[in-house]
């Protein structure tokens, strides 16, 4: 019988990736220290660099997104997450996997316009001069326009009440194509500042993108057939209904919604990080979007479909790129993009949001049935074993014994290690 991916050794997993993806042996060396981010490159990325910091990369299995199978690299320190995503992706596969899309690649940039006598009249002036303002941006970004991007619209928003009184906000809507777009939009905003000041007589204060990128929304949907939800003594109906009750908790209560959404972000951030994208931007956008109607709520939606199956949907802002920034500079991020075979930022966003949906279900399924600790603790036990001094080959045995004894702690790990050493000397 062929081994499952998780049963392979690290070397065998590398061989598997070399055999089944576009990754070469040299690409795979970026996963170990040989060709990963060098201190010299790190020095060019941030100030006062002293080295690099590592985290595990694992591969989420079983994902089919828009009919295409994809191996998904995830970077994070938390056990259970990759296994959870892979497992839910396997259940989704039975109903065709994930259907995902992105609304556009448009980012929003903001200009804060102060010292206006009549903000409403100024908004009218801006709207009347929209075309010439859009032209300024596009004339200054010929390469972006050539790639099919560019300025799409200008919107005005009147802030009626603030600690400094009312003021006007101008939104520039810029299609940034395959970039995350922060640089493109911030540059465009700075180019607009002077013309806007001249046109309105106002003072342009802040010029910065908005991380609430709600024109660049990624959505994933998937159906989980009732029979796939059943396990141990739990029927499919029990699991489905328990999940819907868990979801209702997150919809109604911000204390629960924060944790529920954190579970979604476990999956999302891990892929964002693996591809060298700005996970703080994604986090900020996600939580602002979760509070868009004034109350903080669940980012996901779950329902029982007409056949009694469980259907999930997740939508959130997805400002990720495949060109520029760390995505370009970080050798491992490059290898991870190659591993997934993504050709556009849109495809990357579609994979990421699908992982978020899978992750959400994994957490709710565990919480609504046996609880999160059973699966989590057996993996957590491995970390405790390693921290207690076990080497890689001892860690699993120590962990297994701690789980069997239901005593997962550093002291027990040390005792087991000592017993193992004594056994060897007998
Ligand atoms: C833990 O990292 C994530 C969960 O707390 C998510 C959730 O509660 O839905 C398990």
Please characterize this protein's 3D structure.
This protein is α+β, with helices and mostly antiparallel strands and 426 residues long. It folds into three domains: 54-102 and 216-370, 3-hydroxy-3-methylglutaryl-coenzyme A Reductase, Chain A, domain 2; 106-209, Hydroxymethylglutaryl-CoA reductase, class I/II, NAD/NADP-binding domain (Alpha-Beta Plaits, 2-Layer Sandwich), CATH 3.30.70.420; 375-425, Helicase, Ruva Protein, domain 3 (Orthogonal Bundle), CATH 1.10.8. It contains 18 helices and ten strands. The chain has a four-stranded antiparallel sheet with strand order 3-8-10-9. Strands 5-6-4-7 form a four-stranded antiparallel sheet. A two-stranded antiparallel sheet has the order 1-2. The two termini are 36 Å apart. The site of (R)-mevalonate has 10 residues, from helix 11 and helix 15. (R)-mevalonate binds at residues 78, 259-260, 262-263, 266, 363-364, 367, 372.
List keywords for this structure.
3-hydroxy-3-methylglutaryl-coenzyme A Reductase, Chain A, domain 2; globular; binds (R)-mevalonate; Alpha-Beta Plaits; 18% strand; four-stranded antiparallel sheet; Helicase, Ruva Protein, domain 3; alpha+beta; 426 residues
CATH architecture of the largest domain: Alpha-Beta Complex
Number of helices: 18
Low-confidence sequence ranges: none
Order of helices and strands: HHHEEHEEHHHEEHEEHHHHEEHHHHHH
Largest sheet: 4 strands, antiparallel
* Oligomer category: single chain
Distance between the termini: 36 Å
- Overall SS class: alpha+beta
The whole-angstrom Rg is 25 Å
Overall form: globular
β-strand percent reads 15-25%
């Amino acid at each position: 019988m062929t081994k499952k991916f998780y049963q392979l050794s690290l070397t065998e997993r590398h061989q598997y990736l070399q055999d089944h993806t576009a990754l070469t042996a040299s690409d795979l060396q970026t996963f170990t220290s040989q060709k990963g981010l060098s201190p010299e490159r790190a020095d060019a990325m941030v100030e006062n660099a002293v080295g690099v910091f590592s985290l595990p990369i694992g591969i989420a299995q079983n994902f089919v997104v828009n009919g295409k199978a994809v191996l998904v690299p995830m970077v994070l320190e938390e056990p259970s997450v990759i296994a959870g995503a892979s497992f839910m992706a396997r259940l989704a596969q039975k109903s065709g996997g994930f259907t995902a899309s992105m609304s556009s690649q448009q980012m929003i940039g903001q200009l804060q316009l102060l010292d206006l006598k009549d903000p409403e009249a100024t908004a009218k002036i801006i709207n009347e001069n929209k075309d010439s303002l859009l032209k300024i941006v596009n004339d200054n970004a010929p390469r972006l326009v050539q790639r099919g991007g560019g300025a799409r619209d200008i919107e005005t928003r009147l802030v009626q009440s603030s600690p400094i009184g009312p003021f006007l906000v101008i939104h520039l809507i810029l299609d940034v194509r395959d970039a995350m777009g922060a640089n493109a939009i911030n540059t465009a905003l700075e180019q607009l500042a002077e013309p806007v000041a001249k046109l309105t007589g106002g003072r342009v204060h802040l010029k910065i993108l908005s991380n609430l990128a709600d024109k660049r929304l990624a959505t994933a949907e998937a159906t989980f057939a009732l029979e796939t939800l059943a396990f141990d003594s739990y029927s499919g109906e029990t699991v489905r209904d328990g999940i819907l009750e868990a979801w209702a908790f997150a919809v109604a209560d911000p204390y629960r919604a924060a944790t529920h959404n954190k579970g979604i972000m476990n999956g999302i951030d891990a892929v964002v990080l693996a591809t060298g994208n700005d996970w703080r931007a994604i986090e900020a956008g996600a939580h602002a979007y979760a509070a868009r109607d004034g109350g903080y709520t669940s980012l996901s939606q779950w329902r029982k479909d007409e056949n009694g199956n469980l259907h999930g949907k997740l939508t959130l802002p997805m400002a990720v790129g495949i060109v520029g920034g760390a995505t370009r500079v970080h050798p491992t991020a490059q290898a991870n993009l190659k591993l997934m075979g993504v050709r556009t930022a849109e495809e990357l966003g579609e994979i990421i949001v699908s992982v978020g949906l899978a992750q959400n279900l994994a957490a709710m399924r565990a919480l609504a049935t046996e609880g999160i600790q059973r699966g989590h603790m057996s993996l957590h036990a491995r970390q405790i074993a390693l921290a207690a001094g076990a080497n890689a080959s001892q860690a699993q045995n120590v962990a297994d014994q701690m789980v069997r004894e239901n005593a997962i702690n550093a002291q027990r790990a040390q005792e087991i290690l000592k017993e193992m050493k004594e056994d060897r000397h007998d």
